[in-house]
Amino acid sequence: MGIGKNMKQIAQKHPRKTAIYFDDKKISYGDFYRSICQLRQNLEELSQEKQSQKVAILIGNEPAFLELFFAVVAMGWVAIPFDPKWSRREAVQIMDEAEPDLLITSKSFFQATAYSFDCIHYVEDLKRTTENTNTNVWNVFSNEHFYLGFTSGSTGTPKGFIRNHESWLASFIAAEKAFHYNHDDIIIAPGPLCHSLSLFGAVHALHIGASFYLTPSFSAESTFDILSDGRATVIYAVPTMLHGLAQQTGSTNKKIPILSSGAKLTPKIKNKLQKTFPAGRIYEYYGASELSFVSYATEEMTELHPHSVGKAFPGVRISIRNQSNELVPNGEIGNIFIESDFLFTGYLNNKKTTSEVLTPYGANIGDLGFINHDGLLTIIGREKNMIITGGLNVYPEEVEKVIKEMKSIKEAIVIGLADEYWGQKVVALIMLNEDISTVDTEHIKVYCKKQLASYKCPKEIHVVDVFPYTSTGKIARKELNLIL
């Protein structure tokens, strides 16, 4: 059985329980299930008796997104969330790659009509009441595909990754064990539903019969109010969101699990967050769209090992291997391999890259790291980002962490530029905090030399006003050379 398999039972047992909070509205499980059934009926009419369909979803953060998502996966079809922020060029590129059978959008997204796609339908029309709302049982097999997402990473080139039901069902169980939440909680994940982090939080909540607090977009002020008022009891967020929450005046003594992913929290943000949520519990976890959960760190773990991303999730085995795929001793840097039931099925239309990632030793997405004597994992960086300067390896992420420890620095990215003498020279690009107008770059170099081996320190430092970003909000490293 697949995701949402208990939806009918939940709706029958708790018809008035709130499934989704949205603005000032409450959508009960009874109404949520009825909407899913109506959508299923109307989707079946569109399917032309095809067994399986791929459905592109171009809808913002509104309940209709989740109603449609569950309707699609309940039919054994594949949902493809489209990002409203994609340019027409990006959307057409992904259309060509994914080849959806249907594109379902909201009437508020007028840009969908520019996609030159024949099978565009509006969710408002598909939610119309039908005479017969009886639907087939949720008879999806757990090994069937249900979700095709796109991740751009830091390269800006979208890659389609395929998920089956079982990979997320197993991840749900691991999350409940590690983070200690259940069907009595109200989960908020205030990022875009088209991104896998927020989508996972929403789908997990509704799958287990918890409540999900849906926001149209992220606002630090309103999210803090929601948490401090007890309207949500668990939050999934990325560090940029938590940075905004940590800036809020006041604090709350609510015992909130704060689940952070996407990057390590800087000590500055973490300290502020602990003051804002003194009774909260901060979990930092490492994972990826392809891997789901890998490791998680409690506050006790990061107190002893600040740079660690913690221990393996229940059901995950982590190994560190060299270029010959041989195991290396604890403390030695190598390629990180992951074995678990949470892994993706493969990349869309890309058998070569799939075979490079899904190896006989586990999944390896190019991250480098080591395991310490306590069994905790530390990420050093991405192999593809590594700089070779004077024959020595420099991991940009390590240098970036040091630079971002300085109070004047908001963001820092380190890259390698071609150099006749060094091969590559280490160059840092920095963005200053809003209240800082100038900075002494020589002072930054001196600070780095106190914290790092000299060959790792930037030979040049450039102040920038803004960084180029991918559609998923990550800094596009490949474009950084263009701004120098």
Structural commentary:
This protein is an alpha/beta fold and 484 residues long. Among the domains are: 1-164, ANL, N-terminal domain (Rossmann fold); 386-483, ANL, C-terminal domain (GMP Synthetase, Chain A, domain 3, 2-Layer Sandwich). The chain contains 14 helices and 27 strands. The chain has a 13-stranded mixed beta sheet with strand order 2-1-10-9-11-12-13-14-15-22-21-17-16. Strand 19 and strand 20 form a beta hairpin. The protein is globular and about 75 Å long. The termini are far apart. The relative contact order is 0.09. Residues 9-348 form the AMP-dependent synthetase/ligase domain. Residues 398-474 form the AMP-binding enzyme C-terminal domain.
Task: Chart the SSEs and their pairings.
Layout: H1 7-13, E1 18-22, E2 25-28, H2 29-46, E3 54-58, H3 63-74, E4 78-81, H4 88-98, E5 102-105, E6 120-122, H5 123-126, E7 145-151, E8 159-164, H6 165-179, E9 186-188, H7 196-208, E10 211-214, H8 220-228, E11 234-237, H9 239-246, E12 257-260, H10 267-276, E13 281-288, E14 292-297, H11 299-304, E15 308-312, E16 317-321, E17 334-339, E18 346-347, H12 351-357, E19 358-359, E20 362-363, E21 367-371, E22 377-382, E23 387-389, E24 392-394, H13 396-403, E25 409-419, E26 423-432, H14 441-451, E27 460-463
Parallel strand pairs: 1-10, 3-4, 3-5, 5-6, 9-10, 9-11, 11-12, 12-13, 26-27
Antiparallel strand pairs: 1-2, 7-8, 8-18, 13-14, 14-15, 15-22, 16-17, 17-21, 19-20, 21-22, 23-24, 25-26
Helix pairs in contact: 1-2, 2-3, 8-9, 9-10
